[in-house]
Amino acid sequence: MKRTLALIALAVLVLTGCWDRRELNDIGIVVAVALDKEPKTGKIIVTSQIIRPAALAKGASQKEAPVEIFSATGNTTIEAARNVTQVLDRRNVYFHTKLLVVSEQIAKEGILSYLDVFSRGRESRGYIWICIAKNASSREVLGVKKGIEQIQARHLVSLIRNEKFHYSSHTLNILRFYKQILGTGMNPVTGALEIVESPAYAIEQKPEKTTRNIKLHQSAVFKKDKLVGYLTPQEAQGYNWVIGKPKNGIISMPSFLDPGKKYSVEILNSSSDIIPSLEGGKASFVIRVQTTTALAETQGQVKPLNPEQMLDLIKKAERRSEETIKTEIETAIRAAQKKFNSDIFGFGNTISKKYPKEWDKMKTRWEEMFPEAEYTIEVKATIKRTELTHSPMKAEE
């Protein structure tokens, strides 16, 4: 009897077809989506960047674009997305969507309602990166082709992933973006994509003197779900120190050995801790940052130093790194408090965890309290390695 039941179960698994199977020739694989708004009607414009499999096939013409871009309008995001099928001979699927680009207009009005479909849709995933199109429509951003990658969406995603090599911007996926908007005591920051002009070199075989490129070098600041401004690269660096993000990157500072020259340390790791205090109804914070770096380059040229001199140089470099990091953090906090009045660091969140009863009473007033919150910054920077040389070198005269 058991054997018979097992055979029946196996037959069901093997012989039953996939009820929702869709042939590759019938679907359009969407790798990026852009959201804009029509100025006159207020309708939503959804732009889909769709892969053309034939263009990526072995032996395909290099002149054939690997993607197609289609736009349609609707009263809601899902309606506009479905209306794309009026101009496209495929049924769009979003299993492989990696990037969502949102216009400044939508972001300033309030982005949450436009993202609802991405949280409900069974085809979309929470790991989709979300960026704001700065000084351009979001579909313009999807229309700029530049980079080594054949598929432009992958190029943009690579820019986001390259944040691990620097700390001048900060980008969230939709899941984390939602979590911060719907959470307590912290507002989100995500990447901003901007179209920039760059020279076209002869080796690129382009007739134009200039070419358009996409740069990820600023970060969009939100108050709840509304865009309120952008962090400069230096402000974003300070922000990343506070949240403990920098795991790599370069800090360049004036040389101790040769006036007018620079030296650089490479970030190997970092961590941070925000410690809140409440006294007399006022909030204050201690921000503790620790980082490990390596002396990566020095332009200062001197004769070889002895070990004692080299050790003293490293200690000076560590102190200067601490001062530089502290300045970057102060710049970021000043921007958050005075320019944006947006708690992007999660100061309020730390209060809610340590003082839950007090937070229940003060959370409705936190927007008024945050700009006046006091803070102390403690930074500990350690140089672990000096790479290949023991000291800077100078050519013999």
From TrEMBL:
It comes from the Bacteria. Keywords: Germination, Lipoprotein, Membrane, Palmitate, Signal. InterPro entries: GerAC_N, Spore_GerAC-like, Spore_GerAC-like_C, Spore_GerAC_C_sf. Gene3D superfamilies: Nutrient germinant receptor protein C, domain 1, Nutrient germinant receptor protein C, domain 3. Its main location: membrane. It holds the Pfam family Spore_GerAC_N. Residues 20-194 form the Spore germination protein N-terminal domain. It is found in: Membrane. It is a lipid-anchor. Residues 218-386 form the Spore germination GerAC-like C-terminal domain. Belongs to the GerABKC lipoprotein family. PANTHER family: SPORE GERMINATION PROTEIN B3. This is Ger(X)C family spore germination protein.
